[in-house]
Fold this sequence. Notes:
Layout: H1 10-13, H2 49-57, E1 63-65, H3 78-81, E2 83-86, E3 91-94, H4 96-99, E4 105-111, H5 115-130, H6 136-145, E5 155-161, H7 163-177, E6 185-191, H8 197-201, H9 207-211, E7 217-226, E8 230-234, E9 240-246, E10 248-254, H10 256-270, H11 286-297, E11 309-314, E12 319-322, E13 327-333, E14 339-347
Antiparallel strand pairs: 1-12, 2-3, 4-5, 4-6, 6-7, 7-14, 8-13, 9-12, 9-14, 10-11, 10-13
Amino acid sequence: MPKVFSVNSKWVWHMSKTAPSRRYMSGNVSFEGNKVPQLAHLPKEHTTVEIFREQLFGSKKPTVFGNDHGSPAPLLPALDKWFSKDLRNASTTLSEYFCQFRDAMVPYEIYAPTPAQKESLALFRDYLEKEQTQDKIITRSWDSCFTGPADGQDFFQLHAPLHLFTEVLKFNDVVRKKGLQGVSLYIAQCSIAELPQALQEDIPTPEIVVHAGKGDIYGSSIWLGITPTYTPLHRDPNPNLFCQLSGTKVVRLMAPRAGDWLFRQIQAELQRSGNSRIRTDEMMQGEERYKLHQAVWEAGPDSPVPPGTYEVVLNPGDAMFIPTHYWHSVKSVGESGDLNASVNWWFR
């Protein structure tokens, strides 16, 4: 048996006004009690493809589509087909329909910076060993990710069956009842084209993506994770339509110049240079992740986020348009362990 992550291994021992201990509050108070301006939902009469193209897409204006105000998200069958209510726990879980595609291979990310989180990875491996219906593909994928030394590593990636996600959900439910930490798992930036055909048909390309620009679609992804999930500040090479399917996400958005300035400041502090146009592995752990989070989400009165920073709260059925060159950082919020899902398209 390969050397795997164990409980006793050395791995286990290894600009706004934000109050990190406070939860998201609705109404006029933005996420965690800060004073970052929030983008308002677009009026429903302005959400047609024609008006979007003429007034927003070409002029590169960030746009929020409310669930009941012309959002394309409610037209996606996945919104209803992929999720079901768990009445026992008053939460949302994956539907039986979605779980039938258990063998589909998808990319996963795991972030485990603390000893307790690293211990949860070892406990999950023990859990897999004890499962009567042990999935050898899941076990092999897990072991290949956590084999060998990984001193100082907090961020891990692997390809495994979709069934891994449901196994982690079950495991987390067990260990959290014992007061232990669950595994933080994220199916991140999984291409829609890699999904089974039936799931692809549940997330058809919205009309706005097809007709607002030239009709060129450069990529599309699903994002299915266990709260909390987090993507540091970055910018995309193409316009982005982002639809929320389950749970709540908060987006911090910065105008190009504001984001450029902040990113250069952080790179200078780190004594490095970086290509910030895409979501990279380097920004997902270590000092760069910490500094990006601190600057965007934990800034204090003496170091506020730059002017031109906005916040968007996305609930199921909401959507937003992020123009090219607009910087953004994304968090899922809610109870730890909650299901969170989104889908997006990059287009021109």
